[in-house]
Amino acid sequence: MKSFTRAFGAVLALRLYAALACMAAVGQATSPQAERYTWRNVEIGGGGGFVDGILFHPKQPDLIYARTDIGGVYRWDARARRWIALTDWVGQDDGNLRGAESIAVDPTDPNRVYVAAGTYSQPALKTAILRSTDQGRTWQQTPMPLMMGGNEDGRSIGERLAVDPNHPRTLYFGSRHDGLWRSGDYGASWAKVDSFPAVPDNPPPARGDRRTPPRGAGVGWVVFDARSGMAGQPTPAIYVGVAVPDIPTLYRSTDAGATWQAVPGQPRGLIPHHGVLDSDGSLYLTYGNGIGPNGVTDGAVWKYNTRDGVWADITPVRPTADHPGGYAGLTVDAQHPGTVMVSTLDRWNPGDEVFRSTDGGAHWRPLSLGSTRDATGAPWLKWGDPQPRFGWWIGTLELDPFHMGRALYGTGATIWGTDDVTQADQGRPTHWKMYAEGIEETAVTALISPPAGPPLISGLGDIGGFTHHALNASPPEGMSSNPIFTTTSGLDFAGRSPAVVARVGSASRGGRGGAYSLDGGQTWTPFAAVPEGSRGSGAIAVTADGGTLVWASQGAPVSCSRDHGATWTACAGLPRPDPSSPRSYFGQSRLTLAADRVNPNTVYAFNGAAGTLLRSTDGGASFSPVAAANLPAGSNGLVATPGKEGDLWVTAGDNGLYHSTGGGATFTKMPNVARADGLGLGKAAPSRSDPALYLVGTPATVGAVHGVYRSDDGGASWVRINDDQHQYGWIGQPITGDPRVYGRVYLGTNGRGILYADPAHP
Q1: b/e for 189-203, b at 16 or more Cβ within 10 A?
Q2: CA distances for 761 relative to 32, 36, 260, 390, 687, angstroms
Q3: Which of 590, 494, 497, 579 has its CA nearest to residue 539?
Q4: CA–CA dist 134, 112 (Å, integer)
Q5: CATH number assigned to the domain comprising residue 670
Q6: Which of 116, 261, 407, 526 minimizes the number of CB atoms within 10 Å of its CB?
């Protein structure tokens, strides 16, 4: 379910990271003013993405951390029963730190927590070990000279980062591409453990290449045997799992990491996803024949007796050709030796499962049978079905060390938890509820805020999108349906008839990749047809009167429909899709469409890569180039101004911001903007006629930093409305203002969901 966000995030990450080096020089004006804003999530609830790691502190009750692949890390607030985001401070320069490769706690000090941060394995992108001594309220960084892949295959393997329970100054980190590393000063500095056996490197993925799954993920996890040592001295016995097939995958040191040996008798040909040491000396391991979360067709569960060196295969259910999959999640009961739970991974038929044993794996009970699942707070988790799914991509599974009935597991969409898992031991049903309140981990692809009807309609990666009747509650009807999309690529409404809305994307259940609404997104009707050759997705525009749809879909000519998608006619004057680039709409680049918000005959088509603007004056039937548009290549967005015919804005990255009042015949570069990654328009300030502008970028003023800004005077001056604690990594598009509430802005992120902000009042 995260294939889109991986690809979307990688492209966005590389584009924005590279652009940082190209920021325009600032002017001579003073630093822009700042206005205090309150930032909140638009409530979708339930997570919305892959929660690939959960960690209970072994000594302090209710101290729980969760890591996500693109949304950072969270800490559980037991009183509020919500997760608190801990890495919203990550800004544009450090955007790659949003993805959490691993997380670790100091078992002797509840205040210390560590995160291995790095989203993509690209040499130009920053990685670091983040260190906190106040449970993640503040952080220090140690930049690392190696690549991490918090949003790459193998991301639920772990934990790669571990603290020595007897000597907490010592930490180990297992890297994907450069072996085992060690710190002796609470993570402040690191050195490679040269004595550890060489691990074959799995080359990092080429930019945007997801076709060939990697065979390995380097050093996958580190486990200390605390009983082998004493407090104040480095622990002698350490186990390390290697996530590479066809070589020994389990190593042990008995001299605090000075030397290492492959553990004899270990299984071969499989990758250990997790390893957990029970208090009775049993080391449990879950295995798959791939690093996951996709591409796993076989697996097993083994137990290794660290006292006598005996191995035992304790696999609950053997995968078959008809029911392929592996094993991943693994946890033991800290109070009851021999009580162990495991999860399957990538088992789509009949679905992933959690198994529980109270006799060291001799007998197992599946927990899905007879269980109940409560999705209150996140109705979309039902995906249109009567009951929510048990879960997919169950890569992490944990038992509470203080409350033996509580178990949590993460999936590709949420966290499920129960307080009565021990019911299964007597053959009684277990009761699960959504346990992800506060985690908003969606990748946002489109946002519109019409002047009437619901305040916001969203398009998302992997979970489609929503019509938001309220900003503080998950939409009760769930995802936008009829059809349900996996990923929405385009949204638009009619400027003079805002109840007419259209959306396009990839349909997960029937449909043709597009739908329209005549009641502001409350109900939807699928397009009855698609342009010839269309594979859905792409960009959509709705003319001002709601009478025409213009769709630039994948694989088809840009086409218009005057009957809500019942029939389509190719638009004249626009290039045909490039057959060598099946995902392109306009040569090799994505085509942006924008309908004039006043004149129903005017529609614009913008090739940002080339800086080429075309215009239709016959409702999309034909397009022709706009003379002397004077836009730079590398532009990234086109916005039409509500209520003003022919009024256009173009964001051009490090080339700044451009404005036209003549339908694009000429554009004026705004002198006070050095960089423009996204622009949204909202209700005008009191006594002003121009709409409020909301910019993701950098004003051309001394001391300006990349952030979110508002202008009430048409871009002549700017005030910063976010702050250093609310930066959200790589941000740009989408962003929009609210046409009904002055000062309100909606911001889409790649991993922290939809944010909205209002001016803070004393």
Answers
A1: ebeebeebeebeebe
A2: 20, 8, 60, 43, 20
A3: 590
A4: 6
A5: 2.130.10.10
A6: 261
Cα distance between residue 477 and residue 519, in whole Å = 15
**Whole-number Å distance between alpha carbons of 693 and 371:** 50
**Could you tell me if residue 670 is inside a domain?**
yes
Query: Token pair 């001002």 is at which residue?
Result: 544
In a domain, 543, yes or no: yes
Known catalytic residue at 462: yes
* Average pLDDT of the residues in 624-652: 93
DSSP 440: B
CB neighbours (10 Å) of residue 599?
19
Nearest Cα to Cα of residue 600 among 538, 525, 543, 524:
543
Helix, strand or coil for residue 410? strand
Residue 9 pLDDT grade (very low, low, confident, very high; cuts 50, 70, 90): very low
Q: How far apart are CA 177 and CA 148, in angstroms?
A: 8
Positive or negative torsion for Cα 18, 53, 728, 46 = positive
Choosing from 69, 106, 346, 400, the catalytic residue is: 69
Question: Distance (Å, rounded) from C-alpha 629 to C-alpha 667?
Answer: 6
Q: Which residue has the tokens 């940082």?
A: 20
The total domain count for the chain is 1
pLDDT at 588 over 50: no
pLDDT in tens, 258-314: 999 999 999 999 999 999 999 999 999 999 999 999 999 999 999 999 999 999 999
Does residue 409 lie in a domain region?
no
Please report the beta strands in 170-321, taking only residues with DSSP state E, as ranges in sequence order: 171-174, 180-183, 191-192, 219-224, 238-242, 250-253, 261-262, 271-277, 282-288, 299-305, 311-313
Cis peptide preceding 388, ω within 30 of 0 = no
Q: How many CB atoms lie within 10 A of CB 314?
A: 21
Helix (H, G, I), strand (E, B) or coil at 346: coil
> In this predicted model, what pLDDT tens digit does every residue of 51-108 receive, in sequence order?
999 999 999 999 999 999 999 999 999 999 999 999 999 999 999 999 999 999 999 9
> Which H helix or E strand runs over 11?
helix 3-20
Residues paired with residue 272 on neighbouring β-strands, in sequence order: 287
Q: Is residue 37 part of a domain?
A: no
Contact 409, 373 (CB under 8 A): no
**How far apart are the C-alpha atoms of 468 and 466, rounded to whole Å?**
6
What does the DSSP 8-state code read for residue 12? H
Say whether 69 is catalytic.
yes
Name the token pair of 141: 């960084």
- Whether the CB-CB separation of 296 and 325 falls below 8 Å is answered with yes
DSSP 8-state assignment for residue 613: E
CA–CA distance, 492 with 448 (Å, rounded to integer): 7
Would the CA dihedral through 98, 169, 61, 328 be positive or negative? Answer: positive
Burial of 510 (0-12, 13-18, 19+ CB in 10 A): exposed
Q: How far does Cα 61 stand from its chain's mean position?
A: 29
pLDDT score for 207: 58
DSSP string, 460-496: ESSSBEEEES-SSS--TT-S-TTTTEEEEEEEEE-SS
Residues 6 or more apart in contact with residue 733 via CB below 8 angstroms: 636, 637, 651, 677, 678, 696, 748
Angle subtended at Cα 269 by Cα 268 and Cα 274, rounded to the nearest 5 degrees: 80
Contacts of 681 (CB under 8 A, 6+ apart): 639, 641, 642, 649, 691, 692, 693, 694, 736, 737, 739
Do 429 and 413 contact (CB within 8 A), yes or no?
no
Query: Average pLDDT in the 708-716 region?
Result: 97
Catalytic residue among 278, 400, 462, 712: 462
- What value does the mean pLDDT of the chain take? 92
Task: Give the residue numbers spanning the domain of 536.
Answer: 450-679
d(CA 707, CA 697): 6
CA 210 vs. chain centroid, Å, equals: 16
